[in-house]
Amino acid sequence: MRSSSHHRQFAALAALLIVAIVGGLGLTAARAVLFPRVDAPNRVNAIVIVAGAADDRYVYARHLAEEGMTDRILVSMPSPEANSSYSSAIDAYCEDSPVVSRDGRLIQIECFRPDVDTTEGEATAATRLARERGYGSLLVVTYWGHVSRVRIYFEQCFDGTVYVTDTPRPLSKSRKDALLHETGGYLKAFLKPAC
Prior knowledge:
The protein is an alpha/beta fold. The protein is built from six helices and six strands, in the order αβαβαββαβαβα.
């Protein structure tokens, strides 16, 4: 009898511990998705734009470069199969290089295809380009709910300093949708590193 009582107590404590761990991980992921840490560096070697269509990340990255943050922008391009207005817009953005800033500097826009059409694929391709070109710092621009996951993947792959920011005009994605989508990706980033 006594042994059975100890087993029940142990099982209850184990279940409580599992619930506490899962709850803690869930709260950590929710905080990272809903209230990410964003960076505002003064100068970087390049700005990287991860793919996304419904916000102003392309305009914002170019604005930051024109303000003097960098002279180089790396743009993740959608897969060649994507025949859409988004794909055409990115092609036009990429063809508009170099851009001349108001102070006369040339800003180079270089587009690349991710290794795989995922955030991990964008991180591995962009960091490989950055290493090949000798860049020591990157600012990655994405939407608010994606900031923490992008940071994880780029920090896993890039040896230099990684900054991540969102855009001034946020993506109109519901907090619930972002939380559901990004929390799974956030946990995947910890369990299966990109590099």
